[in-house]
Automatic annotation (TrEMBL):
TPR repeats: 20-53, 54-87, 88-121, 155-188, 189-222, 223-256, 257-290, 291-324, 392-425
SMART domains (UniProt xref): TPR
Gene3D superfamilies associated with the record: Tetratricopeptide repeat domain
Residues of the signal peptide: 1-19
Organism of this sequence: Mucilaginibacter lutimaris
InterPro entries from the UniProt entry: TPR-like_helical_dom_sf (IPR011990), TPR_rpt (IPR019734), Ycf3 (IPR050498)
Protein name (Swiss-Prot/TrEMBL): Tetratricopeptide repeat protein
Transmembrane helix among keywords: no
Source superkingdom: Bacteria
Keyword tags: Repeat, Signal, TPR repeat
A Pfam family matched in the record: TPR_11
């Protein structure tokens, strides 16, 4: 913000009489040649002659202020106001001291009084600063607007109003202000830099890069502009350009916050493991006792799924210089390794070293959730959000907690909140899609799946879960064009062929499905998902032996995937091996307690085996968890048909139809006359 210029009002004085006015005049002369101590002596003599002389106190306050003796200056301005309540500049300058010492409410009061007496643009400017410091950005915008009305050619007023608008997330308004400021002061690189920030906040990364580049043409050593340009390149997935900017930033300012972290992420995203590791290996060789280098080398390794190497680096970083960031990142590694107690201990250390590390509270919350301490987890998440309301992952965890309690509406609200801060986060979109399915919002879920596919994040684990999720959701016709696009973009990803195979299988193209499953197995001979779904396709062809053989191959590769047991349970059901089907659906619920539909299928298997009591328990539980799931009503209807309870079966089919079930429509035509 602008510095306040202390002004002295020179008045004529008589050179013959040693009056208070004489000393004031001499004091002003001394002050104007910057002999502030001499000026103070003269103003003090004036006060001794006239203890109620407001002007003497005011000028002495100015001199003290120029000597940075704020307490004395403040006292003198207060005296000036006491003896002259209309001393406009005494209020103004005292307000500036209040501003500088963090007494923003008092500053606002002083600036308001000065404005009431004689409004000026700079008074509104400084009051706006005080309001902004208190978080009243709307009030700041209002004051800057008034200042601009008084001085419309002051570029700084548009600049600071732009900052206030940015804080209100009015980035379009901020850009308009920066445009005006640039037109008034076209060689001010800072203005162009701030405009770039606003464009970046709006997601206009190309526009931001243009502004950062223009700002750097005027000031090539602006390390921040280079750093933020690197961030913009990263958001456009131009990681090589981002890496170049981060390296330049390090040369100009190796202490730039987070620069190594972002460089590590960019190097990891390039996928060039060798270059990423070589860069930090060379840096560590040149500076082997730099704890930060080990920290960010660890992040590179973590992003490349080298948990063991990352853990060793974090250990070394902590050994050299224990830091909150190092403990927090080591906590995250231990969370991924399921060492929850150790993760919690590391998060505790991170918070001890820096109680304002919002991410450490989130890491500890994750550990507490795994340790079944939901109360402590909620307390940590709330603390983290207070410190950093824009940390989207905090809201994701809150959503996960509510989803785990089957409070789907509130879980969705949390996921919406998370996505408002990070709209392109595929993980959160997947969470929201699956939760929308729990409340039968299929249109919303499909929209989320389409966004995930459009983003196509380079993460095999995420892709695997995305394929499984959209398959379970039974978006067969809708998924076919999605997978066609994904296969065209990445013809070497086995899971995309599996997904397309499932879509083809359930839209009547069994041969096309089998071809896609075969291609998937050529690309990845260990694709258990391809075996499971090829088994399902063979089941559709009544080839039970071939179907069970494929399922068995898939289980041999990976016996922890619920899909295998779910599909085999359906096959066994068709083969009237009801107890075998019950056993498989038991396995599904053991692997994933949240697979509510598996309870309904187990209920059907139990009903067909004659175990009505436990069948009813399964259906009641499933409907308690997902009362808007049409498949559960359809399956219960089928179980009731089996015991000749057609009336209640038809009630279930009608409910399933109301919720959108096509299978129930066919059943109703058959049984409900």
């Amino acid at each position: 913000m602008a510095k306040l210029l202390i002004i002295f009002l020179l008045l004529p004085f008589c050179c013959f009489a040693q009056s208070a006015e004489t000393y004031i005049g001499v004091g002003n002369t001394e002050a104007n040649i910057k002999n502030y101590k001499g000026a103070i002596d003269d103003f003090t003599k004036a006060i001794q002659l006239e203890p109620n002389n407001a002007r003497a106190y005011f000028y002495r306050g100015n001199a003290y202020n120029n000597l940075k003796e704020r307490d004395k200056a403040f006292a003198d301005y207060s005296k000036a106001i006491q003896y002259d309540p209309k001393s406009t500049f005494a209020y103004f300058y005292r307000g500036n001291i209040n501003n500088e010492t963090g007494k923003f409410a008092d500053a606002i009061n002083d600036f308001t009084r000065a404005i009431e007496l004689a409004p000026r643009a700079d008074m509104y400017h400084y009051r706006a600063n005080a309001k902004a410091s208190l978080g009243d950005h709307a009030g700041a915008v209002e004051d800057f607007t008034k200042a601009i009305a008084l001085d419309p050619k002051d570029a700084s007023l548009y600049e600071y109003r732009g900052v206030a608008k940015s804080n209100l997330k009015d980035n379009e308004g901020a850009i308009a202000d920066y445009d005006k400021a640039v037109s008034l002061d076209p060689k001010n690189s800072d203005l162009i830099f701030y405009r770039g920030n606003a464009k970046g906040n709006m997601g206009d990364y190309k526009g931001a890069i243009g502004d950062y580049t223009a700002a750097l043409a005027l000031n090539p050593k602006n390390a921040e502009a280079i750093f933020y340009r690197g961030n913009a390149y990263g958001n456009l997935k131009n990681y090589n350009a981002a890496i170049a900017d981060y390296k330049t930033t390090i040369r100009l300012n190796p202490k730039m916050p987070n620069v190594y972290k972002y460089l590590a992420n960019a190097l990891g995203n390039v996928g060039d493991k060798k270059s990423a590791l070589e860069y930090f290996a060379q840096a560590i060789k040149q500076d082997p006792n730099n704890a930060d280098l080990y920290l960010y080398d660890g992040l590179v390794k973590y992003n490349l799924n080298d948990n063991e190497g990352a853990l060793a680096d974090f250990d070394k970083s902590i050994e050299l210089k224990p830091s909150s960031d190092a403990y927090q990142n080591r906590a995250d590694i231990k969370l991924s390794l399921k060492n929850y107690d150790e993760a919690k201990d590391d998060a505790d250390e991170a918070i001890k070293l820096d109680s304002k590390n919002a991410y450490a509270y989130v890491s500890r919350a994750r550990a507490n959730l795994e340790l079944r301490d939901t109360v402590a987890a909620l307390a940590d998440l709330n603390t983290g959000i207070k410190m950093n309301p824009a940390n989207d992952y905090s809201y994701v965890l809150l959503g996960n907690i509510d989803a785990g309690k089957h409070k789907y509406d509130s879980a969705l609200a949390w996921y919406d909140k998370a996505l408002s801060y990070s709209p392109g986060d595929s993980e959160t979109l997947l969470k929201r899609a699956e939760t929308r399915l729990k409340v039968n919002n299929r249109a919303g879920a499909l929209a989320d799946y389409k966004r995930i596919a459009a983003i196509n994040k380079d993460d095999d684990n995420l892709r695997d879960r995305f394929v499984k999720s959209i398959i379970r959701a039974k978006f067969y016709a809708e998924a076919l064009p999605i997978f066609n696009t994904l296969v065209a973009a990445d013809g070497k990803n086995a899971n995309f062929f599996v997904g397309r195979g499932v879509a083809k299988q359930h839209t009547g193209d069994i041969q096309g499905a089998l071809a896609d499953y075969g291609t998937a197995l050529k690309l990845d001979t260990a694709s258990s998902l391809a075996y499971f779904n090829r088994g399902s396709a063979r089941f559709d062809q009544k080839d039970y032996t071939g179907a069970l053989a494929d399922i068995a191959k898939g289980i041999k590769i990976n016996d922890g995937q619920e899909d295998a047991y779910f599909i085999r349970g359906q096959i066994r059901l068709a083969m009237k091996n009801y107890q075998g089907a019950v056993d498989d659906f038991n396995s599904v619920t053991f692997i994933n307690l949240d697979n509510t539909v598996a309870y309904a299928w187990r209920g059907l298997a139990r009903a067909l085996s004659g175990d009505k009591q436990r069948s009813d328990l399964d259906f009641n539980y499933a409907l308690k968890i997902e009362p808007k799931n049409p498949e559960i009503y359809y399956l219960r209807g089928q179980s009731r048909v089996n015991v000749k309870d057609v009336t209640n079966a038809c009630t279930d089919f009608k409910q399933a139809i109301a919720l959108g079930s096509k299978d129930a429509e066919a059943a109703a035509k058959q049984y409900c006359k």
